[in-house]
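Much of our argument rests on the idea that a fold can be written as discrete symbols. In the encoding step, the backbone of a single protein was reduced to a row of integers, each denoting a local shape. We regard such an encoding as a compact summary of how the chain folds. The record that follows shows the chain in one-letter code together with its fold in token form:
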Amino acid sequence: MKKIAIIGSGGSGKSTFSRALGKRLGIGVDHLDALLWKAGWEPTSRTEQLEIQQQLTQKESWIIDGNYNGTLELRLRAADTIVFLDMPRILCLYRVLKRRWHYRRKPRPDMAAGCGEKITFEFLKWVWHYPNTKRPHVLEMLEGLAGEKTIVVLDSPRKAETFLENLSTEQQKHR
């Protein structure tokens, strides 16, 4: 596990999981939300998004978290391991609301400067509909990559914790 793509719905825990995974593996983490937005929630162009991600995926080791479906295939093809945080929609919505409250007066560490935490009806709708609109395509892509990549699907916070704990145990055995 040296090149890891972390994907999942908004509120699935991608950034938190990525930071914990990076710490355990000693691999740097890149949060796409921090790289692909400019101040005031201005998105980078698709060309910039591709350039940034091509540079990131050229590194010897990396953890990249984020969806960005328009460039998802680039990251999945470059990864040796893909972690899909397939959390229940109610949990994702709860986490989105909790995150908004937590970061109401301070910047989020995984977000671009000048992009304060906000919730829009469109974003809540996207999170709610993710299992029906985005998840099937993600699962189809993962199925197509299953023979050549390590695919990890974690569908509960407990399974995510156990995965990280088991990594720590395995690393200690090999030291």
